[in-house]
Amino acid sequence: xxxxxxxxxxxxILFMLLLLLWGALIRLxxxxxxxxxxxxxxxxxxxxxxxxxxxxxxxxATAAAGGLIASIVVGVLVALVFAQSRWVxxxxxxxTILLQTVPIVAIAPLILMWIxxxxxxxxxxxxxxxxxxxxxxTTQGLIGVDRNLIDLFLMNNASRAQILLKLRLPHALPxxxxxxxxxxxxxxxxxxxxxxxxxxxxVGVGGIGYAIQYANSQLETDYLFALVAAATVLGFAFFFAVxxxxxxxxxxxxxxxxxxxxx
Length: 263
Fold this sequence. Notes:
The protein contains 11 helices and no strands. By secondary structure, the chain is an all-alpha fold. It has 2 domains: 31 residues; 224 residues, MetI-like (MetI-like fold, Orthogonal Bundle). α2 packs across α10 and α5 crosses α8.
């Protein structure tokens, strides 16, 4: 507990020093507020627009969480299929890499045209951008089981389903959580990217991406920085939630979680 408190205190102190450095540079270099507002101005803008900021944050969080959860479900199912057949894996696995190579900004306008604006379109963009890391890491975890362990199961007349459920899936959990950690951060990016193109189903109400466009058009730089800070906090919240779930499911039996606790 003492180690965690020390880490938290160090992080807070570093954050406060960065804020002080930010304000000092603005005063020393005489940077106008419309180019770079001070931390006080950003905080004031966030307080003045707090209700709308929370609405935007909630909409983006909903779309990002929906896309992330859907990508976990679909990604695990696809990885299970890939792990059962080398032929299927060789035929279709390269197409999952295609999801990472195609720019999401090229896909988002198509989704808007096909489905229309709204939270479903935004969640679909987040789903697409999150899917590839889940499939890649889970597949690697499922097929990376030691052959000696598989032979041991076969010697005890284990069925294909028993090998999958009792050996491959537990072995793949750390890899799955690695993929989820990667996707948890980019889920927020995907949702905001979708909002930049899909906008909102209602005029004047939208997520962080929609609010960023509005603040930029009105030259509200202080509120723009507040929105960026809110998006950063949301990304951290997703990441640490996944880290907690990883610790919860693995710390009693997997070596990686125990090693992290000892460090």
